[in-house]
Amino acid sequence: MTTQPKIHVSDLNLYYGDNHALNNIHLDIPEKSICALIGPSGCGKSTFLRTLNRMNDLIHGVKITGKVLVDGQQIYNQDMDVASLRKRVGMVFQRPNPFPMSIFDNVAYGPRIHGIRKKSELVPIVERSLRQAALWDEVKDRLNKSALGLSGGQQQRLCIARLLAVEPDVLLMDEPTSALDPISTLKVEELTQQLKERYTIITVTHNMQQAARISDYTSFFLNGQLVETDQTDRMFTAPSDKRTEDYITGRFG
Ligand SMILES: Nc1ncnc2c1ncn2[C@@H]1O[C@H](COP(=O)(O)OP(=O)(O)O)[C@@H](O)[C@H]1O
Ligand SMILES: [Mg+2]
Description:
binds adenosine-5'-diphosphate, binds magnesium ion, about 35% helix, Rossmann fold, 4-stranded antiparallel beta sheet, single chain, globular, alpha/beta
């Protein structure tokens, strides 16, 4: 493989004060693939996800060493434009967090911040983003209604539409379906697989079936270490590390 990975992580360490939360992480993530991060609570999955768009910068007392390259560019360099990084590498959280405003305004929020003001330019962006998030048909007649009136699953897809509106190329998802019912979960899973055609996706999940269903690669974290990464089908049939096997067969975690 000579093609450059979309994301390259090497020798990555992160400390919250004295807590060494990420220990020498190495990982390459190819473009337009889905990588699932699995592992017990507190092992560093969310922390790792946040290192990929420098969201940990916002936490007091964090120290980070090592390399994270996105498209070959070291994002921890002094001269990195962090706002533009976060536009390229967007994040979806466990609890859907729509803003208390209309559906339209939620999706138009990012483009407006980036200087697009004309309604005639915003309308097609909002429609495209809602279509890509597989939500358009459900909301097209109520775009001016409050986003808070949507179901949890619709709200999560709205949050995904809000990200897509600023045209990122990497999507970070931190347990995006753990607060959703099974049908909404399935919709978000289907959506994630469609989005893979255009985006590189890294998703944290506690649901082994979900990891197996949707991801191309799986990385298993334990106590701040990345134990192993493999193609998902191989990881779930023949893990190479005993600790991975114990975890995926439900012996701990
Ligand atoms: N904002 C924070 N400040 C200090 N320590 C944190 C913070 N977030 C997480 N940690 C610590 O880092 C470790 C990994 O946590 P986290 O990344 O949230 O794990 P996971 O997402 O796998 O459950 C834990 O020991 C946790 O207590
Ligand atoms: Mg977490």
